[in-house]
Amino acid sequence: MSKRDENPVGDPMRHVPPGMSSQAIVLPKTELSAHGIAPRDAKRLIEHDLALDGNALLNLATFVTTYMEPEAEELMALSFDKNMIDKDEYPETAAIEERCINIVTNLFHAPEPGVGTSAIGSSEAVMLCGLAMKWIWRAKREKDGKPVDRPNLVLGTNVQVVWEKFCRYWDVEPNYVPVAEDRFTVSPEDVVAHCDENTIGVVAILGTTYTGEFEPIKEIHDAVVARNAETGWDIPLHVDAASGGFVAPFVHPDLEWDFRLPNVVSINVSGHKYGLVYPGVGWAAWRSRDRLPDDLVFHVSYLGGDMPTFTLNFSRPGNQIVGQYYNFVRLGHEGYTAIMGALQEGARGLAASIADIGVFDVIADGSDIPVIAFKLKSPEKYTVYDISFHLRYHGWQVPAYPLPENAQDTHVLRIVVRIGMTMDMADSLVADLRSAVEFLESHGGMPEVQAKKGFAH
C-alpha cells in the first residue's frame, strides 16, 4: 500500500465512509461534496473530464507552446511551489530570472542590458511597457506645464486585443491606424499622420496575430523620428514582439527591428510562444533604465530583504521561469536557430501544398514567422468557416475569421506551425484540407455554419 493510500492523520480521506465506491460519485459542479474520495479516484475521474478536451498538438489556432522535453517538465515540477515574488526565500530562482532578463535584453541588442522583468505573458508585459510610456509622457508634459488629460496611443487595427484592454484600463485613447484591402499591416505614412503632441507612443508589431506578417518596423521608426525632429515631440516606439521576438533574431538576424533602432524604447515578447515554454511566461524589456520610471517600481520588505518589483501579478510560480532558462541552456543560439529555421521551412512547404490544392490564395506563407494565412479564391459556394468546421471532424482546430476594419471583407484561415508538428502531420492536414474541399465542392456549405459565420469574429 502506498503512503498516499494509508490515509495518515490530516488526510481528509480519513473521514470518507467505508465502502464508498468511486463509481457512485458525481463530480461536484456547484458546491463542495459532503465527503472526499481517494487521491487515485479523484485523479481518474478528472482525467475522464479532461479527455473531452481537444488534442493540443492538433490545435493549430494557438501560438502557445504545446510540447516541451520531459527533462524540462521535470525541472519545472521542482518549482511549482515556489512563489516568484519571494525572492529572498528563493534566491536561486530569482537569480535564474535575472539571467533570463539579461539573455533576452542582449538578444534584442539593448545598449543597457538587464533592464526588464518577467511576466505571466505578453498581456502583462504590454501593460507594463504601456504604463512606462504613459508615465514618461505625463512627467514631461507636467514639467512643460501642459495638460495631461488626453493621452493617446497610436496602434494599428490589427493589434492583439490586449492593447485595447491597456487603453481602456489605463485611460489612454486608442488612435487606430487602418490596414487596407490589399495590405494587412500599417504604413509608416499612416502612422505619423495619426501622431500628435498627446501621443505617448507608437506600437509596431513583429508578427501580427491576424496573418503573422512583420510590420515595416524600421520604416515606421524612421518616419516617427523624422516627425519628432519636425515638431519637437518625443514620441517613442514600442515593438510588440509577442510572436516574433524569439523568431527574428535567429532566422532574420539582419532585420533591424529591436533596440538597434534608437527610438525603440521597449519590447514585449512571449516566452510561451516561440520561446518554446508552456504558458504562461512573457518578458518586458527596456532599452535603458531611464525608460523605466522609478515610481512604477515598488520595494517590498515584509517578505525579507528589499525586493524591487514591477508587475501586475504578485503571486505566481517560478516553474515557467525555470522552463525558459532550461531552453536557453539546452538550445543556445544554435539550437534556437535550427528549430526556428526548421519551423519556417516546414511552414513554407505547407503553404506551398495548400496553394497546390488550387482553391486557396496564400496571404502569408510563413516567411516572417511560421504562420500561414490563406483565403478562398471564390467563396461563393462555401466559405472558410465551412472549411474550418469540416476540419474539426478530423480533430484539427484551424480558426477562420475576418481581417480588421478596411479589410473585413477578407476572411481567412490561419495555421500556426509550432514545435511538435511533424512532416507526417502536415501531410495529413493537407489531405484533410483536400477532403474538405472535395466534400464542399460536391455538397456546398453547411447551413449551420453559414448561419453562425457572422459571429466568427
Structural description of this entry:
The protein is α/β, with parallel strands linked by helices and 457 residues long. It has three domains: 3-40, no CATH class; 72-327, Aspartate Aminotransferase, domain 2, CATH 3.40.640; 346-455, Aspartate Aminotransferase, domain 1. 37% of the residues lie in helices and 14% in strands. It contains twelve helices and 13 strands. The strands form three sheets. Strands 1-7-6-5-4-2-3 form a seven-stranded mixed β-sheet, with helices on both faces. Helix 2 packs antiparallel against helix 9 and helix 9 packs across helix 11 (423-443). The model is unreliable at 1-9, 12-19 and 451-457 (pLDDT under 50).
Tag the structure with descriptive keywords.
single chain; 457 residues; alpha/beta; Aspartate Aminotransferase, domain 2; Aspartate Aminotransferase, domain 1; 3 domains; seven-stranded mixed sheet; four-stranded antiparallel sheet; 12 helices; 37% helix; globular; disordered N terminus; disordered C terminus
